[in-house]
Amino acid sequence: MKPFRPGWVPTLVVLMLLPGLIALGCWQLGRAEDKRALLASYAERQAGEPIGAAQLPQVQDPAYRRVHLFGHFDNQHSLLLDNRMRDGQVGVELLQPFFDQASGLWLLVNRGWLPWPDRRNAVQFSTPKQTLSLDAWVYIAPGATFQLQTDPESGSWPRLLTAIDAAHLWTQLSREGFAHELRLEAGPASYRLDWPVVAMGPEKHLGYAVQWFALALVLLYLYFGWHNNKKEKQHGSRHESTQHV
Q1: pLDDT at residue 148 in the model
Q2: Number of structural domains, the chain?
């Protein structure tokens, strides 16, 4: 039996691509596991009792913690988070500073989604003037946010942004505030609240992992298939030569 001696070109291609495809598949599996842990943590914390806003600065990992607020909104410094989609419709999320009277802390509260079908007209919303008792939860975006538009300290209010940095806002307003966004639970001050917990669920990552592993198998199939095809052609050529002799 003739030993397996593939050409150096296909071997080099396989050695370059195969480890990368397998690594990408394993990375997607890891991402899926991370998302499962995140969703489990979210579910556990959402089932717990809300903590007071005064406790937030001492919480080591505040993500998805429920928080009870008592105070009022600042309707003079509203932020509109642009390019938010719901059911195929373009809109914005409305965020406003909220002063918690029990803690003396400012918090940036996301009141939910609003449609914005015609950009020639301003987004319509109202702000409660009375003191409110609200429940919200802390949202911390995975990874660093990327700011595409103008700085919050320039221009008129409300300000249209593509990413929110609460800590930067408090610096600009010279206020003592919590460094992360809070997302409001259903109540008298909320708009549409159906946020996805994660942009991509574990099942999507598993699907991508399957695709990467499948590509690795296809690469091996082509590699060995090319070799077998080459052997068959060589065998056929020798057979024809023998017949002619």
Answers
A1: 40
A2: 1
